[in-house]
Design a protein that fits this description.
The protein is mainly α. The protein is built from five helices and no strands. The protein is elongated and about 85 Å long.
C-alpha cells in the first residue's frame, strides 16, 4: 500500500486553522476576563452585560476547539475535514458576495481566497490525499482494456487506475498519482 504525501496547500490550510484557533482562544479568554470585570462594575457597564460578554467568550473558546479539530483532520487527511473545509469556503464565498452587494470592497480578497480554496480542494492530488479517488485494480493481460478511447501516442496507461496517459505526463490526469 502506498502512502500519499500531504499536499503543501493542505498543510498551509491546517496551519492557518491552527492560527485561527489560537486567536479565537485568546479572544475567548479575553472576553471571559472582561466579563468578570464587568460583573464587578469596573467599567461602569450594566452588570447583566457580564453574562453576555462571558457567553461570547465561551462561544469563541468552542470555535477555537472546533478549528483545532479541523486542522487535525486536514493534517491527517480525514474525509470529513475535506467536506467541512469545502462547506466553510462556500459559506465564505456566499458571505463575501453579500458583503460586495452592500458595497464593502475590502471583502473581495476573502472572496478570492475562498474561491481558490474551493478550486484547490477539487484538484486530483488533494482529492486523492483525502481518499476521494480509490485506486482501481490494474487490468490483467487477459482482460480487455476499454477501447472507447485509444491511448495517446507514447503515453501508455496509468499503473494506478489504468487511465490513458499522454506522453511525458508527470501525474495521472484521472487519479493524480505520480507516473513513473
Amino acid at each position: 500500500m502506498t502512502t500519499i504525501s500531504r499536499p503543501l496547500g493542505i498543510t498551509l490550510l491546517a496551519v492557518l486553522h491552527i492560527l485561527q484557533a489560537v486567536l479565537l482562544l485568546l479572544g475567548g479568554i479575553a472576553l471571559m476576563a472582561l466579563g468578570a470585570f464587568v460583573a464587578r462594575g469596573v467599567f461602569g457597564m450594566p452588570r447583566f452585560m457580564h453574562g453576555v460578554v462571558s457567553v461570547i467568550g465561551v462561544v469563541l473558546l468552542i470555535l477555537a476547539l472546533l478549528y483545532l479539530g479541523l486542522a487535525w483532520g486536514l493534517w491527517t487527511g480525514k474525509g470529513w475535514a475535506w467536506t467541512l473545509s469545502l462547506i466553510l469556503a462556500v459559506l465564505g464565498i456566499i458571505i463575501s458576495l453579500l458583503g460586495l452587494l452592500r458595497g464593502r470592497l475590502g471583502i473581495l480578497i476573502v472572496l478570492i481566497l475562498d474561491a481558490v480554496i474551493v478550486y484547490y480542494l477539487f484538484t486530483p492530488n488533494v482529492r486523492t490525499f483525502f481518499g476521494e479517488y480509490k485506486p482501481r485494480p490494474l487490468p490483467t493481460p487477459t482482460q480487455a482494456v476499454p477501447t472507447t478511447q485509444s491511448p495517446p501516442s507514447g503515453g501508455g496507461f496509468c499503473p494506478n487506475c489504468g487511465a490513458p496517459l499522454v506522453a511525458n505526463d508527470k501525474f495521472c490526469s484521472h487519479c493524480g498519482q505520480p507516473v513513473p
